[in-house]
Every structure is written in structure tokens, then in C-alpha cells.
Write a structure and sequence with these properties.
With 261 residues, the protein is mainly alpha-helical. The protein folds into 2 domains: 106 residues, Cytochrome c-like domain (Cytochrome Bc1 Complex, Chain D, domain 2); 94 residues, Cytochrome c-like domain (Cytochrome Bc1 Complex, Chain D, domain 2, Orthogonal Bundle), CATH 1.10.760.10. 31% of the residues lie in helices and 5% in strands. The radius of gyration is 18 Å and the shape is globular. The protein starts with 38 loop residues before the first helix and ends with a helix.
């Protein structure tokens, strides 16, 4: 389940905050600093990311599933076909924001590198031609330039700021007390290893950053809400033998913490 990526360039963020106090209205990803020499490669990668010629039938680009500066279209796929959320064959579309700092790539967690993961998506899923090294290098440069939206509620180490809502601060304490950090390590809130949480197999530990905007949840998109997802994970932790006790209020605060990530 979903990392401040240092060296953010300044961007404007909306002053309007939702009633929950959990997010700004602007979800434009911050651009990580790149040198003038790297900028042309980043721009080439942006163009390629939106180029349907990467797919075998010329109908799909990377941006088809990752629109809005490589975010997520919140759908579940088998290949390039949209399937019902929760289909055990399906894989939900993750955001590409912050992907350059992810500990593991692909739901299987087996991609050797970001370049290898991109190549696998183009060839195996999009049925496109073998991408050239130059194409892969440009796509990697573009994706690595994408951070996360500016967040007034998180410190660089991933802990809540003083401005964070009180419920989110309580939720962070619950997050630590319940042992969530064993798999979701700040500031990226993921880890390199794969895990079996009784969800139908062994999958990577997804990053929790911007998780409130990446539903449906789990590899197959089985859950539509964070409340459902947190409840399932807490049941798993209990089955795994924790001695910790959480109340319904604790779980609600835990969800509120995830909403500010």
C-alpha cells in the first residue's frame, strides 16, 4: 500500500485545503532538479511517454494508463484491457510520481531496474517493438524528474509537520505503534522486499505516498477505500501474531495519517 523527493523546485500550490485538512487542491507533481544538460533528455522522455508508437497497435502510450504527468488513471488492467477491480488476474495502475526513489518496481517486485521495468511494460504489456537504449534512457530521465506535489503536512523525513491535522498526527503514532513501519519505511513508505499478506500471492510493498489519490488498492484493485484497506491489513497483522491492540478510533486516525502522505 503508498517520500519527499529532495531538491524540489519551487512550485505554486493551492491555498485551498479540503475540509478534511488532508490535501491541497493542486496535484501537480514537483519537478526534481535536473541540470541544463539533462533537460533535453527529460523533454524527449516526456514526448515519448505520450507517444502511441511505443505500442504494437499504435493505440496506447504510457500516458494512457499514467495520465496527468505520469500519475494513475485509477484502473485495473490485464495487459492493456481494463478489467473489473478485484479481478485476481488484474494489476492496478500505480502512480509514477517519485518512482526514481522506489525501493521495488512492478507488482511482482522483480524488475531489476526502472529501465528494465519500462522495457517490460512496452514489450510485454503494450506489445510494442524493442525500445532502443536511447528511448529507455529518455523515459527513465523523465520519470526520475517527477517528484510529488508540495506537501505542507510532511517533513523531509516523512513525519508530520506541526501544520498536519491532529488526527493525522495521532495516526502517525498509531502507524509506529502498530508496526506498519516494518514494511512501509519513511520517507518513501515502501521497502525493497516483497511480502505475502494473504492477498493471493507475494507482491511488492507499495509506497503509501499520495495513497489517497491512487485507489483502487492492492495489486488487483480489490478495495476502493483506505478504510477497507486498513481494516484488511490490520486483520492480517493480528493473524501474524501482534500483541498490539487498536481501537476503531485508532484505525480512523491511521487512515487520516495516510491521507496526508
Amino acid at each position: 500500500m503508498p517520500r519527499p523527493r529532495g531538491r524540489f523546485l519551487p512550485i505554486l500550490i493551492s491555498a485551498a485545503v479540503l475540509a478534511s485538512g488532508c490535501a491541497t487542491a493542486d496535484l501537480t507533481p514537483a519537478r526534481l532538479a535536473v541540470s541544463p544538460a539533462e533537460q533535453p533528455l527529460v523533454e524527449k522522455g516526456r514526448a515519448l511517454f505520450n507517444d502511441t508508437k511505443l505500442s504494437g497497435d499504435g493505440k496506447f502510450s504510457c500516458a494512457t494508463c499514467h495520465p496527468n504527468d505520469a500519475h494513475t488513471n485509477n484502473k485495473t488492467y490485464v495487459g492493456v484491457d481494463v478489467v473489473k477491480d478485484g479481478d485476481p488476474r488484474g494489476r492496478s495502475t500505480p502512480t509514477m510520481w517519485g518512482v526514481g526513489q522506489r525501493a521495488a518496481l512492478s507488482w511482482a517486485g522483480t524488475a531489476p531496474s526502472l529501465q528494465g521495468n519500462i522495457r517490460g511494460i512496452i514489450v510485454n504489456r503494450m506489445k510494442g517493438p524493442e525500445p532502443s537504449p536511447d528511448t529507455l534512457a529518455a523515459l527513465v530521465a523523465y520519470l526520475k524528474s517527477l517528484g510529488y506535489p508540495a506537501n505542507p503536512y510532511l517533513k523531509p523525513d516523512g513525519t508530520p509537520t506541526d501544520a498536519a491535522p491532529a488526527a493525522a498526527k495521532r495516526g502517525f503514532a498509531v502507524f509506529e505503534r502498530a508496526g506498519c513501519k516494518a514494511c512501509h519505511l519513511p520517507p518513501t513508505y515502501d521497502k525493497k522486499d516483497v511480502e505475502d499478506v494473504f492477498s493471493g500471492g507475494t507482491f511488492k510493498v507499495p509506497s503509501l505516498r499520495v495513497v489517497r489519490h491512487t485507489a483502487p488498492y492492492f495489486h488487483d484493485g480489490r478495495f476502493q477505500t483506505l478504510d477497507e484497506t486498513v481494516k484488511f491489513m490490520w486483520e492480517y497483522v493480528q493473524k501474524a501474531g501482534t500483541s498490539e491492540k487498536l481501537t476503531d478510533a485508532d484505525l480512523r486516525d491511521l487512515v487520516e495519517f495516510m491521507k496526508i502522505l
